[in-house]
Amino acid sequence: MDTVMRLGTENPVVIFSKTSCGISHAISTLIRGFGANPMIHELDELPNGHEIEKALMELGCNPSVPAVFIGQEFIGGSNEIISLNIRGKLKPLLMKGNAIWI
């Protein structure tokens, strides 16, 4: 869990993903569409990816990816990000987290 929290604070937007996950790619594309440049950790390419995946599940991510941190705060998975976007709250959250300045 410590590794996840440390990695989650390295950048204004951090996405834990897997290279084979289409939803993770869609969430990354959505966030990039606002002008943010997320740090993406592909769990299937990391030597400790399995431990990180277990820690994400302990945080409540099921499935484990995508898992998104914005402004050093754990936001959630794809459902939370899409819901925030539909309600018009994703862009303000990205701005508050210093991921975008527009």
Automatic annotation (TrEMBL):
<dbReference type="InterPro" id="IPR014025">
    <property type="entry name" value="Glutaredoxin_subgr"/>
</dbReference>
<dbReference type="InterPro" id="IPR036249">
    <property type="entry name" value="Thioredoxin-like_sf"/>
</dbReference>
<dbReference type="Pfam" id="PF00462">
    <property type="entry name" value="Glutaredoxin"/>
</dbReference>
<keyword id="KW-0963">Cytoplasm</keyword>
<dbReference type="InterPro" id="IPR002109">
    <property type="entry name" value="Glutaredoxin"/>
</dbReference>
<keyword id="KW-0676">Redox-active center</keyword>
<feature type="domain" description="Glutaredoxin">
    <location>
        <begin position="13"/>
        <end position="75"/>
    </location>
</feature>
<dbReference type="InterPro" id="IPR011905">
    <property type="entry name" value="GlrX-like_pln_2"/>
</dbReference>
<comment type="similarity">
    <text>Belongs to the glutaredoxin family. CC-type subfamily.</text>
</comment>
<dbReference type="GO" id="GO:0005737">
    <property type="term" value="C:cytoplasm"/>
</dbReference>
<protein>
    <submittedName>
        <fullName>Monothiol glutaredoxin-S1</fullName>
    </submittedName>
</protein>
